[in-house]
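Quiz preparation item.
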């Protein structure tokens, strides 16, 4: 089923949640889970991109951290105008990871 997490939010956030629950005909829990999932997805992508920009991980590893396909991480790099850092070592790691991914 999942884990219950309880949190207190400012009144303004509660009002916004109530507004969107009525607009989208959802209950608070469903909307809150959806918003949390979207925020976590974006947070993972931002974290992975920071690691990539700092040259701590390859592009393939950044995609794995963010849990998105390599093609999507490439599009995000382009959209955010993040320079493409790619070395021969990165290529070798990505080929090895791709081979292991197929198995």
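Solution:
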């Amino acid at each position: 089923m999942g884990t219950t997490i309880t949190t207190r939010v400012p009144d303004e956030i509660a009002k916004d949640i109530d507004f969107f629950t009525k607009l989208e005909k959802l209950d608070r829990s469903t909307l809150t889970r959806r918003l949390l999932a979207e925020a976590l997805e974006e947070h993972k992508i931002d974290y992975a991109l920071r690691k990539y920009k700092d040259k701590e991980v390859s592009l393939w590893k950044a995609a794995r951290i963010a849990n998105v396909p390599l093609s999507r991480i490439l599009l995000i790099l382009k959209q955010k105008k993040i320079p493409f850092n790619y070395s021969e070592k990165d290529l070798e790691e990505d080929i090895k990871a791709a081979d292991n991914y197929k198995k």
